[in-house]
Amino acid sequence: MLNSESLNNVLENKVISHQDIIEIYKNAVIDSSELFSVAQNLRKKFKKDSVTFSKKVFFNIVNLCKDTCSYCTYKAEPEEEKLSLMSKQQILELLQLAKKYRCVEALFVTGERPEQKYQEARDWLKENGFKSTAEYLIHASELALELGLFPHTNAGNLNFEEMKELKKTNVSMGLMLENVSDRLTKKGMPHHLAASKIPKARLKVLENSGKLRIPMTTGILIGIGETAEEIIDSIFAIKQLHQKYGNIQEVILQNFQPKPDTMMKNVPSADENYFKIIVALSRIIMPEMNIQIPPNLSPKSYQSFLSIGINDWGGISPLTPDFVNPEFAWPEIDKVDENSKNAGFELKCRFPIYPEFFSFISKELREKISIIENEEGLVKEEYWR
Ligand code: SF4
Question: How does strand 105-110 pair with strand 50-62?
Fold first, then answer.
């Protein structure tokens, strides 16, 4: 009974408590149909009949990392073939190629402060004329902007000053919260060897992004050994940040997929129904939020998530792999378009910043966006098709 009552309250715009959500979760494990339908009604109410994506190029700037998360295959050791230390010339060449492919977003990704741990990273920075990875990212972002791409940096726990500098060129930035549970940092848990994943540290960076008015992408990794309560706590933590600063532009819900070369190689993928319940709960907890799932991580079923509350596919690249999930190729944009259409939704290309957040960025950045922006604040069709 509480389930139906609480769900009706959501539709009537009434506040729903943490305890109500726990009850809804427990009921949904037995039968999720009512939850899914309420989530979908909310999605339709706030996000209408379109689904967005960002046409991006993925710059794997440096994948050395001072931390070790048990599920991560992105991180490289210096002797590994997958090591990436991009030179300024390589960055320039990839930007030029991305322009030819009509990409809009330049996604810059690095490991966590690699120069703190690796001589190789310090040498690489020196060779290119920089003192820190953050300095290098500032340069790469300026270059991207000059060439007409819009930077979005995700480089782990940057400090306040670094983020302040990057805000000058980045229309938005990203940092996955992952999970707000301290338990996941204990011995034997996925974040035990990753100081940057301590929830307090993570939340501090997100707080700073709020103080700096940076449109921020964050999210949760689902299926890494957390409890449902911990996931729900994490969604509420994001909601609270957004209530305080208003700068969380989207929430990525990423389903865990085990990687063969990691400590968690034998842990099964996130169960799809569990994942879907979390997606629908997120819509209920944050009815107006942009909610994203990466289509490449649910290759056979991603379109079915359109009927349980999501409204965004995130970045899809026509020319670079997903270096974080290299075994999961991005679907072709035409295929995503077709599948979205078949599910009753129109695919639209957005900037790495959602239109609702345009007032957060400088006049200069806003002017650059306006050149290829349509009347909805999205990318003009003729620019990305
Ligand atoms: S997930 Fe990020 S912080 Fe963790 S090991 Fe990989 S690159 Fe480093």
Answer: parallel
Give me ligand 1 centre to Cα 370, in Å: 35
pLDDT of residue 2: 52
Q: Is the CB of 68 under 6 A from ligand 1?
A: yes
CA 8 to ligand 1 center in whole angstroms: 40
Q: Is residue 172 part of a domain?
A: yes
Residue span of the structural domain in which 91 resides:
17-375
For ligand 1, say whether the CB of 111 is within 6 Å of any of its atoms: yes
pLDDT tens per residue, range 267-277: 999 999 999 99
Domain count, the chain: 1
CA of 120 to the centre of ligand 1 (A): 17
If one counts every other C-beta atom within 10 angstroms of the C-beta of residue 323, the result is 17
The pLDDT tens digits of the residues spanning 224-265 come to: 999 999 999 999 999 999 999 999 999 999 999 999 999 999
The verdict on the CB of residue 65 being under 6 Å from ligand 1 is: yes
C-alpha closest to that of 138 among 160, 107, 162: 162
CA distances 368 to 58, 111, 329, 354, 379, Å, are 21, 29, 31, 15, 12
Decide: 75 in ligand 1 pocket, CB within 6 A: yes
- State the distance from the centre of ligand 1 to the C-alpha of 268, rounded, in angstroms: 20
Residues 31-60: pLDDT tens digits?
999 999 999 999 999 999 999 999 999 999
Let me know if residue 244 belongs to a domain.
Answer: yes
**What does pLDDT average to over the chain?**
96
Question: The CATH number of the domain where 152 resides is what?
Answer: 3.20.20.70
